[in-house]
Amino acid sequence: MKITCLCEAVNEVDIPAVYDVDADPAVVGRILDGSFMSFTCTECGKLIKPEVPVRVSSLKRKFDIFLVPEIERGDYLAGKTDYRAGELASSMNRIVIGFSELLEKTRIVEAGLDDRTVEALKYYILVQADETHPDAEASVYFRELKDGKLVFHVDGLKAGEVGIVNVPMDYYEKTTKALDGLKADDPLADVIKPPYVSVSNAFEPYE
Fold first, then answer.
1. Which among 192, 196, 122 is positioned nearest to 155, based on CA atoms?
2. 55 contacts 19 by C-beta, under 8 angstroms
């Protein structure tokens, strides 16, 4: 694939359609440290990070994640693209939009958590944030599982500050069980509906 740097140099890079984590376990580490799909311009030496549709998959770990470029977020949510999630049997077949969502989904997989529950917890956090800070445009991200608690970072409540919310594992487990009994008109039903399992389905308008 040819990609053009800001310096206008054309670089030839190898971007496979599928990144097989079983064949190359280091893929996970590159996603987590931000170096995934990063290349150095052969002319000016600056970092190039093209965002193109790719799949990150693992038969052994039972997940298949399709990355939709951030620039196509609106089109995907409006049903104007033909991107499809994987169909691995008994696997987590998901679509994510942009590198930030790929990073978060990978953190969830690494922590051994159910991404549906994580997104449900993010929904609860955002609802509470809207009640306490109605004029803020908050966003919440799963950061890590630490000392038996899910750690979430909340941006946008106060300028220059990041809020931290710790959710105990027992509440996580309680929420997981509750998801099986959701009614169709529950806002969480859209949040946890695959393949795009995301709190954005409840808060992000699109046409």
1. 122
2. yes
